[in-house]
Amino acid sequence: MRLDKWLWAARFYKTRALAVDEINLGRVRVAGQPVKPARDVKAGDVLSIRIGTLTREVEVKGLSQQRGPAPQAQALYAETAASITAREAAAEARRLAPEPADTIQQGRPTKQDRRRLADWDRWSASLDDADAPDSPG
After folding, report:
1. pLDDT tens across 35-62, in order?
2. How far is CA 19 from CA 25, 29, 31, 76, in A?
3. Gap between the Cα atoms of 71 and 62, Å rounded
4. Which of 24, 41, 48, 130 qualifies as a FRET site for 78, CA 20 to 30 Å off?
């Protein structure tokens, strides 16, 4: 069975085209070696799949010619113990020290927000100057 078709059937990627792109970019390896999308996959192969910043190592347990429901797809592979611990450690690190950019709720300020910020800076500076005692001179 083709590697790209297996990745699609095992629900690692939504389409076969995405699977082909990821394989061509070198994000999927079989036994640590870069491969091509048409490579044959058989039960017992160990795949290294990088999705985002996370790398998962899975062992192929079964083959399927069609994409089925998620429980059926999860039966096609077993994640290695080392991969599970690394994934849990990465999740814990993200929980303890989240990426600062992830805390941004709404993106760039709108024109109205910029005006509010400009007014706040202008008025707060003038109020501070007015409250300051006059220096003897």
Report:
1. 999 999 999 999 999 998 889 999 999 9
2. 10, 12, 18, 16
3. 13
4. 24
